Amino acid sequence: MRIATFNVNGVKTRLPHLLRWLEREQPDVACLQELKALDEGFPAAEIRAAGYEPLWKGQRSWNGVAILARGSKPVEVRRALPGDEGDDQSRYLEAAVDGVIVGCLYLPNGNPQPGPKFDYKLAWFERLIAHAQALVASEHPVILCGDYNVVPTDFDIYNPRSWRKDALLQPESRDCWQRLLAQGWTDAIRHLHSEEPVYTFWDYFRQHWQRNAGLRIDHLLLNQRLAPALRAAGVDTWVRGEEKASDHAPAWVELALDRAPAAKPKRAARRS
To answer: Start and end of every Endonuclease/exonuclease/phosphatase domain (predicted)?
Structure first.
């Protein structure tokens, strides 16, 4: 099974890019972020015509998430991150696809910092950590993937000097990331590519794409049951080179699900 995450930066504007990518790479599951579209504006018909069944939660402006499944239908688990019923930003979607629990997330950017947006980022991250604690040791295979808006270490950015004040590199953001990993999650890309820089985002300024001046902020985390199934991971960088592309490229993992240990059968209740 191939599972990918892609911040499309506007699903309607970049629908041709999305459809070309789906046709060429054919991920079994695609998690999308930053739809920038209301529910009724999501291009469900075009995506179904491409062979994918979508589950989505739209929102105007910068938010919106979706899970696409090839040849099967995602079974919705939840449409929001627990912990704050008053939070109406569309940033989390969770579904079951062919026996795998898939969490698609778009963590807040947090800029400018310090300020309310950074406070919201950290509060959202804390809610994610709390929810992830219940998933990491689940008997079901679980993957949490998306745009985390955090650069884990200086190795994950071309040059940290000019980004030191950015919310993506703040010690508080990185501490949240490390506490999340410490639960027992496997950072798939870094696990398989420990000695080489891997980027998933190149902003539109100062020829960053042309100079490969990138950042790694799109991540795929595997829980303890799914981690043994990890076979390969990478980034479809060719998508970023398309004309008028998103500033992100899709990141992905390949999983051999037969390597994941089977869930232990539940013991029948004893009759008195």
So the answer is: 4-248
